[in-house]
Structures are given as C-alpha cells and as structure tokens.
Specification:
Largest sheet of chain A: 3 strands, mixed
Largest interface: A-B, 67 and 67 residues
Shape of chain A: elongated
Radius of gyration of chain A: 29 Å
Bound molecules: adenosine-5'-triphosphate, magnesium ion
Strand order of the largest sheet of chain A: 5-7-8
Distance between the termini of chain A: 24 Å
Oligomer: homodimer
Structural class of chain A: mainly alpha
C-alpha cells in the first residue's frame, strides 16, 4: 500500500467558526497556550537529553563488552575464535536492528535528517514522525552502532528529537483518552512546526553536546521558516539538553555506568594544542579544503548511486533488506578484523602517561596480534568504537602514533564502507563516517607535510574533518560551531572558517548537499527557497490546468461525497452562485478534513437554504482542528445514507473566506515566492478579466516542482 | 525641512519592460551578477575590517596619549593641572565629535543599530546610510570614545559596516560617472538588503573580533528577512574581516602602532580560569541573571526617558546639541577624575609578574595619588580606556584587586553615566556601557559571595556582563557566541546560556529591548514579525479608506502630474476602462519613480491610444532601476509643457501587472503576514463581490502600524 505524500498547511484559516472561536478567546487562554508551549519545549529538551544519554550508555556498554570479549580471546592467541565472536556478535546486533527497521518501521532506516528537513518544509510523508518510528529509531540506532557499522548515531538523534517533539505536539490523543483541553491549542501545523524545529535542535545538541551548534543546525539545515522567536525557543530547548547531559555525565563520573568511561558523547578535548600556523599551513589548509570539497562531492555522488541500487534491493521486501544488512555487516567485520593484520607492530613510546598497549579497556594503542610492549596502530582505529577512533585521530599527544600507510588504509576503508553502509535498513547517521574519513585524510596530509608545517597533526585531522563535512553537507556556520564545541578550541575558528568556505565552494560546483540529494531521491516535494529560472517564463495560469472541482456555497451532499471519493484533492474552491449572490463569486476554499468532519455529523437540510448558524451551534472550533498526520477522518469513516445524498449542506461556516490568491498573469516565480514564504498548501488563481468564472485554478506544491 | 520616511520595496516588479529584459538575460550576465555580488561581499569585509582596525588604532593612541599626559602631571603632584588637562582634552575631543555630528550628519549620532535594523525591515529614513553619515560616524566615534565618554565603538561599527555596504551597493553613481554596466544589477532593494546585512555582520565581527557572533547578530537582531544563502554570504564576509584584523594586529605586534599595545580590539582572554562550579554558584548565577534582567530593563526605561528629554534639547539646533555634549563631557571628566579620590590606596600585591603601580602605560594598578608601592583601584577602572577597564574587571589573576566599595561606586557611576550619555549628539554604542556596568555588578556579587562560591570573580564579572546584556538587548544566541568569542572560554557556555535565558525572561516582563525602544521612539514604522492581536478583529477593507487615486491604462498627462504633485503616494493602481476592456478591471500598480522616468522623456500621444511598443523601444529596463535612497528623480525635475498636459501617455509598459492582492474580507492580521513576509510596499485590496470598482484600496506600511 502506497501512502500519498501530503503537504502541511501553515495558512491561517479564517472561517466563521474559527473567527468566532478567536473572538471568544480570553487572556487566560493565551496565557495557557504560552505556558504550555514553553513547558513542551522544556519536555522536548529533557526527553531528548535523556534519550541521547541512554543511547550512548547502551552503545558504549554493548560495543565495549563486544570489543573486550574479542580482545580477550586474542590475548589468548585464539584468533579465529576472536574473529568468529566479533563477526557473530556484529551480525546478531545488525540483524536485530534490521528486523526492527524492516518489520516495524521502515521509515526509521537511514539518517532521518532529510525527512525532518522535508517535514519542516511542509512535506508530510507517511509515519515519518510516528511513535513506532521513534522507538525503532532509538533501539535500531543502538544496535546498529554497537554492531560496528561505519555509521553514526547523530543523524538518528536529530530524527529522534523531532519524533519526540511530534509526539508531544499531537495535541492529545483521543484513542488514549489524552484530551486535555490545554493541549488542543497545539492541534495545528504551525505550532507543531515550531516544536519539531526545537526537537531537531535538541537532537543535535544531545548528539554532539553542542547546544549552540544545535540551534544553528536547526536554523541552517533543518528549518525552512524561521522567526526570531523560534531562535530563542530552540536556544532554551538546547540549554535544557545541555544541563541534562551534564548532570548525567557527572553522575557517570562516579563509575555507575559500566563501560561508559570517557563518555561516548564525543567531546574531543584538544584544547591542549594551541594552533600556531604560518603561511605554509594556510596553503595546506586551503589545499585540504579544496581536495576535501572534491572528495566530499564524490562521496555524495557515490552515496546517491549506491542508494539507488539499494532501493531496488530493498523493494523486494523485508527479508531482502535483512540480508543486505547481514552482508554489509560481514563485510565491515572482515575489514575491521582483517585489515589490521596488514599493519606492522610498533614499539610503544616510552614517554607515555597511559599504559601501552591498552588492555581491558577502550582507548589508544591496541595490542591486537603484537607482542607485549608493541601496539598495532590500525587496530587502534578499527577495533574501537567510532567515537574512540575519532578521538584517537584528533589527539595531538603523539605525533607519530599512526603510520602513513595506516592512515591511508583506514581512510580508503572508511570512505568505501561509509558509502556502502548508508542506505541499508538500519538507522544510520552520516556525520561519523564523514568525520572519520575526513580526520584520517587530514592527519594523513599533516603527516605528509611533516616538519614543513607548524600546525599539529591532531589539528590537521580536525581541519580534514571540517573539509569533508563542508564538502558533503554544505553547511557553514553550524558546522563551524559544532566543530568548535566538539573540540573545545576557539582559536581554531579562523582556520575552520577558511576550510569550510573553500570546501563548500568547491563542492557546490559539482552537486548538491547530501541531504538535499536524498530528499530529491526519495521523491519528497521539497520547495526551494528561491524560484527556479524557468519559472520566470511561465505564468500561474499556464500551470493550473484540467477541470477544477468546485462546490457551491450550499452544495448537494451527494456531489461532495462523490468529489471526496473520486479525487484525492485536499482543497476545493467554494463559489457562490446566483441565488445567494448577484454573480458567481469566489467565496473561499474548503479543505477535505473540514468537509469530512461536517459530513460525519449528518446534519443536512432538505432544501438549498443557508443553515450556517445551525453548524455554528453544533460544532466547536476544536472539532475542526487539524489532527496529527494519519489521524484524521477518512472518507470511508463517513456514514451517509442513500436518502441523504440528495439533501444539502451549507459550506459557508467552514469555508476559509480569505484564501491567498494570485492573478493568472503572475509569473510562476512570483507565485512560488508567495507560496513558499507563507507556507501555503493551496493557492487560488483568479482571472485577470472579469466576466469569467471567478476562479481559474488552484496551485499546490506539486505544481511548483520542476519535474511537473 | 522634514524628510518623509519612505519604505523599501522587495517585491518583484513584473511589467512588460522588465519581463523583456529578463527574457534577454543570458548565462554570462547571471555569472557577472553572482561574481560581482561575491566581490562586493569581499570588499565589504575588507573595508569594514580596515575601518575597524583604524578606529581602534586611533582611539588607543589618542586616548592613550591623553591618559599618559594626565598621569605624568599627577606624578609631579600637579593635581589641578592634571584635572584641567584631562577635562580640557576631553571637552575638545567631545566638541569635535559633536560639531561633526551636529553640522554634517545628524543621522550619525547614537548607536546606529536601531536605524540599521529599521532599514533592514524596509524603512528608509533620510540619509541614514549616506556617505556623509559614514564619514562622520567613523571620525565622530573616534573622537567620542577618545573623549572618555561612557560609550562604545561597537554600535557605530555596525552602522559603519552597513554604510560601507550601502555605498558599494549603490549600483554606481551617475554623478561621479561611475556607471559600470555590471554594477547596475545592484540597483534594487533586494540586493542592497543582502549587502547591508553583510555589512552589519561585518561591523560586529570587526568590533568584537567575533566572526560567528557577527553572523548571528545580523541574523538575530538586525535582519528581518533571512535566507540560508545569506547565512553563507555573511559568514564569508565576517571571515574576511577576521583575516584582515588578524593580519593587521600581527603587524602591530611588531611595535609599529604606537600605543596600540594589547590591541583596543577587546579580546579578553580569560582562558586561564577553568569554570568549576557547584550548586551555590548555580543559584548565584540565576540570581545574577534575575537581578541583571531587572536592572537591564530599568536601564532601558531610563534611557528612554533621558532620550525623550534630550530630544527636546536637540531640537533647538546644533548649538544646543554641542552644549549638551560639553556638559556631559565635563560631568564624565569630573566623575572619572573625582571619584578615585574616594578610594583608599592599596599596597601592591607582592606576587605579581607585572610592575605595580603601572606607570607610563595603560593597564592595571594605576598609581593616581597614592605613594609608591600602592595603587588606587578605582582609578584603575576610571582612568583607563573602557576596553582596559573591562579587561581589568574580567581578569582573574588577583581576586582582591578591587575593593567592594570601589566596585559599588564604579557600578553606580557607570550605570548613571551610561544612561545620560546615550542620546547626546555623538556616535555612541551601548554595548560597552552595559558590559562595564554588568561586569562591575557581577564582580561585586562574586566578591560578596566570597568563599561560598567556587567560581572565580573574573568569571562572575563575565556572568554579570551577560546578564546586563541580556536584560537590555534581549538577544540570546548571538550574545552568547559574542561573549564566548570575546572571552575565549567555551566551558562558560552552559552558565552563559543560563544567565541569558533568565535575564531575558525577567526583563521581557517589563519592556522591550533597547533597540526596539529606540526604533519606536524615533517613529520609524517597524513591522513586527508577528501580527498584533487587534489585527485579528479588523479586516483589510476596514483599514483602507479615503478616496483612492487611480489612473487608467492610458492616462492624461495632466492628471498624472496633478496626482504626483498633490500627494506623496508612491504607488497608484492602474485600472483599465471600457475602451480597452469590457468592464473596468485592475491592470496593476504603477510606482511613482517609474512614472517620473516615463514623464521625464516627454513622449506623449495626442489621442487615447495604446503606444506601449514605443515606450519599449525608447527605454531600457535599467532606466527604471531603483536608484539609491534620495537619488531618484523628483516631481520638480519634470519639465512638462502646458500643451502636453492634455496629451496622453500609455502606462501599460511600466505597470506591474501582477501585484499581490488580498480580498477585502481578509483579516488585517493575515494581510500583515503577507505584507511582512514578502517585504511589500503596497498591497492592493480587491472587492469580494464583483460588479464594484475592481480595487477598493491600497495598504501600505503605515496602515499596519498600531497607532494608525
Ligand atoms: N479542487 C481541485 N480541482 C481540480 N484540481 C485540483 C484541485 N485541487 C488540486 N488540484 C490539482 O491537482 C493536482 C494534485 O494536487 P493534490 O490533489 O495532490 O493537492 P492536495 O492533496 O490538495 O495538496 P497536497 O498534495 O500538496 O497535500 C495539483 O496539480 C492541483 O493543481
Ligand atoms: N494611490 C493612493 N490613493 C489613495 N490613497 C493611497 C494611495 N497610496 C497610498 N494611499 C494611502 O495613503 C496612506 C499613506 O501612504 P503613503 O502615500 O505614505 O504610501 P507610500 O509613500 O506609497 O508608501 P511608504 O510611505 O510606505 O513608502 C496609506 O494609508 C495608504 O492607504
Ligand atoms: Mg495530495
Ligand atoms: Mg510615503
């Protein structure tokens, strides 16, 4: 069963019922609304913070136990058993994640950021933010990351935050008897949009422990509409997240959290290295940026190709999905366990304040197959959680910790694994693979430059990560701030800005950002902020074609029902005709969901008379409030008897009497601007000359898509 | 002569001429446009960075010489001569600044941020961004700051950045023969808006050396319309500023810049103090936030009162303005020189690595009247540049450097002086006074808490400054980032977020942010992002009243001229009437500036015939491009002969045929949303029922103002 993609509607609907309701609203109710909205923001912050912490705790413990078990077997020279255990546990974890994703919530696979982005643009694809998606996202992400895939938990956290916000913003649920009166104020798309933006920001804040970065991410990448008030609200939410995380980590410092030692919440404190740089370094940074932009756009290109291939496989059903996941899991295990054998054993440096090789805990200097007193540098990267690997790459304590060949192998492996991993039926973020690949690439360049450069190799790794992020995701300010908050080194700011500017500029020459690509690939009708050039040459009248389905002010029930059943349109113009007005005139626009509620009540009149006051008495404005996605009435729920088909119903009270209109000669570009800036769902096109029908067409989101 | 406040217009005007022009535009021209826009952004960054540096260099040297001379006189016990010299030099500098402001560019007085904010909202007050304003702003700000007033150079820097951007975005100038073809693409309000946003961001970046903070400031406080593309452009501009400043300061490290020792570009490196805090500290921080919010809103209230008083004085003419400046200058000098006598001499701490007392250079531990080996702590705050005073307050090397009574006196003096200083005819920023007052208040609380708190007093000073900034300016994210970049201490982030949230919340209960207040006080018609509640109860038709002045498609020249002379309206609906159409119908909207260009050419026809193609041949689209503010044609420039009055002119080619329209029954709130989101200047109101005149009214910015 294919669910159609529907749009959200941010227009203020002005019909008699709502106007009456607005007039009766008192100060106290406005206060309730404001109070509740802040409370919800607080709850979103709290819950997202908790989930983020839980996520990390679970991953660190599961993955930690797995790695410990493996390395213990290796210490006893049982290499095959170790591999079997390692690969076996990975496959089991991967299968768990895949089963969850394939059977319970297919929408939970992937990063989730493109979907959230599309939702905040006004596209409501089926069950993207449903509770089932939320649950699968949380647990699927835990299993997926613990299974050692080259994927991150950051993208899923954003999606999780958005799901939490959506759940809280439902405005109660009739099914579960949660119909608290206050909550009903949130039964509209505008408030939900605000809350979900907060949720996305909270997700980033929880994933990276970067509250300001979270706000900026929501602003730069996620949200399509932005107001100053929202800035403050997201700031509040992310502050809550920061506080929650800080307290919980403080609690864990006491040793109550198992293997959650340093905190999987990546926070790479490289503060120790002060960035001194000279002209050579600047040239190197620009070079890294340019090459990173190239590699990043290539990454996007390949991810797109792989996604299209996987889409074919995934369409074959859940078992095909699970099989694919198992294959990739085995591939990943083989790489992670096999490649370190290529590396030579390196004698431990003597001037260390930590033990070397590392035994019985996570960290640098993995022993692997080496004799005691030696470590395997490639294993330190592969047989660690991704967070630890990043920390190792960013660290600046030992400049020569990793061989050149090691960095090269790791970079190549991660770059390819990252590409083939995204798209399998597991919640998978893109940040971590990109950072890993970028950091190894940056460190590699730093090592190659050797003593020509004065900048530390750890800082080169950060620069490399930034260049890759800029090249794939194409964000600027938010990435800059997130990286600063991650690495806790403000003096890096100029270099980070430089490298981000260069890599984004280079990459933008080739293709779009990875999230935009995925949005497009999934066929989500995303409205760009600017109008396409071709739109300048078309007029609004050219685009809307085909017979328009309209109703008259007092319409026969049968006609309405027929229209609702025969079409999937969600908006119908209402035209008043001579008995009720002198000439045909546009009365307004009525939406499908309102029609359904009206018809459900079965209050019809025998004759074509205006019976609006009756409706005003029977209904309350809340009855027409917009339910959460997938929750409203459907045509099948109606129960209209045969004899009622010939009766009439007055549509005036539920008709939005002031829809936004454009004249048919307006260029499509200008109409698109109106449509996009105001977040409309339907835009009426009226004729230029009088004497014709009062409305010539209706524009929806689909009409603004280039492929249309 | 009173100049009316006019609005800017961001609507895409679609008339035949422009459409033709658009159709003829080629790829290469689009490339030229993009290339030039980035070049201009680069230039804005470069110039703003240079000006910012020059500003600091001049201030540090002038003020430094002044203070050195004064302290040398004091060392010789010539106290009265010292005071005379100090006050005399202050008055001279102040008078210079005031003369510049009063005679050459009255618009340069004050902070400038409110004006830039209003401009970016679409309000074009006379000569706000003119070149004369730019020059006076730069030099007036230097003299003003050097004169020792309690005011900052940060607000003026924002205004300066915006002026530079405006100058570059003029699209050439016919007067100075700078009519390069490429530049003409920028002759419209939309591109100017983008550039000026970049300018404002560059100004903040140059003032605080905070590139990311600059972007966020432009986003949160300055800009009313925001697109993702703009984020990137401002980011680029501020990155350029950062690079320029860094290189110049590097150059100054070599000692080529006179007294520009530590760099007046405030950059309070308090990185040394790691913020450890316990529950008591948190409570203290919340308390500081709440009280800071109260004091901040009181500050706003008092500033508003004082401004209203000063407005009366300033209206008396330039001499009254200068007199007021001299009075305030004397008052400031008396405070700065007189109050330190109240403080006791403190023996120098022994464990210092700098000399104490400081002689012959700027810095801590001023000697003042004390015997050698002692310092006067109040003089260390008062007889220093404001930047140095802030650095002293933020410093955490010597916890007991300042006495309680010193901090209290300083706080009270700065709080009052800051209030009475803003509003005099000198370019004056609000950031520095607020930070000074806030920092002394925070340090005071920190000292009072003594050993109960574990947080350092220097960090308390930062918290206090944040609370004051939050309480007066009501920004959140941008202040947070600016403070982080200023103090270079990312670990303060959670505390800063907390204190900003608390103080803003508290202060918002009482009044609006200081910039909003000033915008309102100046009578600039600022459009809020959200509609006022009363607008819900009015319809668009209710608001537009009075006889509408319309033209018909081919109109008599005399009528047009009469309308242009008799009214100041800038938009006139064009209605086609029966000879040219079946029934009267709305053809579109024509703007005053286009009419003037058309009439200036004196191409009229004897009869009422359509002669549009003639117009299309005579004119080029660029002829109608919008000139910079105050530069277009005026009615007086027209030269229409008596016999031409009875002739006709075809308005069709210059009529915008697709203006945005709303139906008269639409609520004003909904119309305001359309008006605001699309940045319109005129909004046509059309009738609901047919058979009436095709347009019932026109809404402009003034109609959405509450006082209207
Ligand atoms: N009442 C209508 N009568 C005739 N055509 C319509 C009507 N409403 C929409 N259309 C056309 O049908 C096409 C598909 O629109 P669709 O029915 O999916 O719109 P919708 O469901 O109301 O909005 P969306 O799909 O964006 O949620 C559009 O191109 C639009 O022009
Ligand atoms: N062509 C017109 N005929 C009659 N009234 C008009 C016309 N244009 C504007 N008005 C009315 O005059 C009032 C003042 O508008 P004003 O003339 O200042 O607008 P404007 O100069 O075109 O725009 P702005 O002042 O915002 O730049 C408004 O309330 C508006 O309703
Ligand atoms: Mg549809
Ligand atoms: Mg006007």
């Amino acid at each position: 069963k294919v669910y159609p993609i529907e749009s959200l509607d941010y227009e203020i609907i002005e019909n008699e019922l709502f106007k009456q309701d607005w007039r009766s609203r008192k100060k106290i109710q406005i206060f309730q609304y404001i109070f509740l909205k802040w409370t919800l923001s607080l709850l979103i912050g709290l819950l997202t913070g908790l989930v983020g912490f839980f996520n990390n705790l679970a991953v660190e413990n599961i993955a930690g136990l797995k790695l410990l078990y493996t390395s213990n077997l290796m210490l006893n020279d049982r290499y095959f058993a170790a591999f079997a255990a390692f690969a076996g546990m990975n496959v089991i974890l991967a299968t768990c994640a895949a089963v969850l994703c394939a059977f319970f919530a297919p929408a939970a696979a992937g990063s989730g950021i493109p979907e959230v982005k599309a939702y905040l643009n006004g596209v409501d694809a089926h069950s993207i933010l449903a509770p089932s998606t939320l649950l699968v996202k949380i647990f699927g992400s835990i299993f997926g990351v613990a299974a050692g895939f080259v994927l991150g938990k950051e993208g899923p956290m954003v999606h999780t935050g958005a799901c939490i916000a959506n759940l809280l913003g439902q405005g109660g649920s009739r099914k579960y008897r949660m119909t608290w009166k206050w909550l009903r104020y949130f039964k509209n798309d505008r408030d939900r949009r605000d809350l979900i933006t907060c949720g996305a920001a909270a997700g980033v804040a929880a994933a990276f422990r970067a509250p300001v970065g979270g706000v900026l991410f929501a602003l730069e990448e996620a949200a399509s509409w932005w107001r100053s008030a929202l800035l403050w609200r997201t700031f509040f939410t992310t502050a809550v997240v920061a506080v929650v995380l800080r307290s919980l980590i403080q609690f864990c410092r006491g040793g109550h959290c198992g293997l959650f030692g340093q905190g999987g919440l990546i926070m790479f404190d490289v503060n120790s290295a002060v960035p001194y740089y000279n002209a050579v370094d600047l040239v190197a940074v620009i070079f890294i940026g340019a090459l990173g932009g190239l590699l990043g756009s290539l990454y996007n290109f390949l991810v797109d190709k792989v996604l299209r291939t996987y889409a074919v496989i995934n369409e074959r059903g859940p078992y095909a999905k699970i099989l694919l996941v198992i294959c990739i899991s085995l591939l990943t295990s083989c790489c992670a366990y096999g490649l370190p054998w290529l590396a030579q054993c390196i004698p431990c440096p003597t001037d260390l304040d930590q033990r070397c090789p590392t035994i019985g805990r996570s960290g640098n200097y993995k022993n692997f197959q080496c004799p005691s007193g030696h470590y395997n540098d490639l294993a330190s990267l592969f047989l660690n959680t991704n967070d630890d690997a990043i920390r190792n790459l960013f660290s600046s304590t030992n400049k020569n910790e990793f061989h050149l060949s090691t960095l090269l192998i790791f970079f190549a492996a991660i770059y390819s694994l990252g590409i083939v991993t995204y798209g399998i039926a597991v919640p998978s973020g893109l940040f971590i693979p990109v950072i890993l690949a970028g950091a190894s690439y940056g460190r590699l360049v730093g090592r190659l430059l050797g003593s020509i450069a004065t900048l530390d190799v750890g800082l080169f790794a950060i620069i490399g990560a930034a260049s890759f992020l800029g090249g794939t995701m194409r964000m600027t300010v938010s990435l800059c701030v997130i990286l600063l908050e991650l690495t806790n080194d403000l003096l890096m700011l100029p270099l980070l800005m430089l490298v981000l500017l260069v890599s984004k500029t280079v990459a933008d020459c080739f293709n779009k950002g990875v999230y935009d690509q995925i949005v497009r690939m999934k066929g989500l009708p995303y409205l760009e902020a600017h109008a396409e050039p071709y739109m300048r040459h078309l007029s609004a009248g050219d685009v809307c074609s085909g017979p328009l389905i309209t109703f008259s002010g007092v319409e026969k029930v049968g006609n309405i029902l027929h229209a609702l059943q025969m079409t999937r349109h969600n908006g119908f113009p209402v035209v008043d005709e001579p008995p009720f007005s002198d000439a045909p005139e546009l009365c307004g626009l009525v939406s499908r969901s309102h029609l359904l509620v009206l018809l459900k009540a079965n209050k019809f009149t025998k004759n074509r008379t205006i019976s609006g006051s009756e409706v005003l008495r029977t209904f309350h404005a809340y009855d027409f409030a917009k339910a959460g996605s997938g929750k409203g009435l459907k045509v099948e729920d109606l129960d209209v008897k045969e004899e009622e088909m010939e009766m009439f119903v007055d549509l005036h009270p539920i008709t939005n009497t002031s829809p936004y209109t454009v004249v048919e000669t307006m260029s499509l570009a200008k109409a698109a601007l109106l449509f996009r800036e105001l977040g409309l769902r339907h835009l009426c096109v009226v004729p230029k000359t009088s004497g014709r029908s009062p409305i010539v067409g209706i524009l929806t989101r689909h009409d603004f898509m280039p492929e249309h």
